[in-house]
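User: My advisor, Dr. K., asked me to get a structural model of this assembly before our group meeting. I'm new to this, so sorry if the format is off. These are the inputs:
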Amino acid sequence: DQQVKQNSPSLSVQEGRISILNCDYTNSMFDYFLWYKKYPAEGPTFLISISSIKDKNEDGRFTVFLNKSAKHLSLHIVPSQPGDSAVYFCAASVPLYNQGGKLIFGQGTELSVKP
Amino acid sequence: GAVVSQHPSWVICKSGTSVKIECRSLDFQATTMFWYRQFPKQSLMLMATSNEGSKATYEQGVEKDKFLINHASLTLSTLTVTSAHPEDSSFYICSARDKSYGYTFGSGTRLTVV
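Assistant: The format is fine. Below is the predicted structure of the whole assembly, which you can bring to the meeting.
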């Protein structure tokens, strides 16, 4: 049972334009949602997170939107840069009191930003 | 910031042998550590959750006797792949959770069983 889903395996965007990465989830108990950037054979790098009680969080070029009723979140990157090219993972955390606060990851979306 | 050191970064072993992977939190005490594995172009799949001084909690389908996890201190967790086989070849990543820093990931270990 895939609790966190990223339905787009890849996304190609022109430099300077907006990149929008999407993520859906099924478990209403998730308390935080996080986005990570990852390169092959490396650990994930944290980008931005959002609490389940918020609907938007912004950090520089990165903004995460959360729609709880639709169980959907998205990561916006504006403007996109070639250095943003990587695999992006959406993750959701279970509350600490429940199963130790583990993180569940989506399948990832490979972003390619063309110069 | 928080740093998690994972060693080795890559290892090749013969089928039937055991391999130990270490995960250390360098500047904070990790109350909980998580172990993931990732196959090429796939998601990070949670294998188990370990809490210092207690037994690890394994995810469904993960063999606890094959993937031994020890979390003997607040700064060290180890994953031992016992009697490794080629199908165990994968990328293993640890993560430490702390109340202040949230989740911090190690750099991963590429295991190849020949």
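One thing worth pointing out at the meeting: Residues 18 and 78 of chain A are 5 Å apart (CA to CA).

User: Perfect, thanks a lot.
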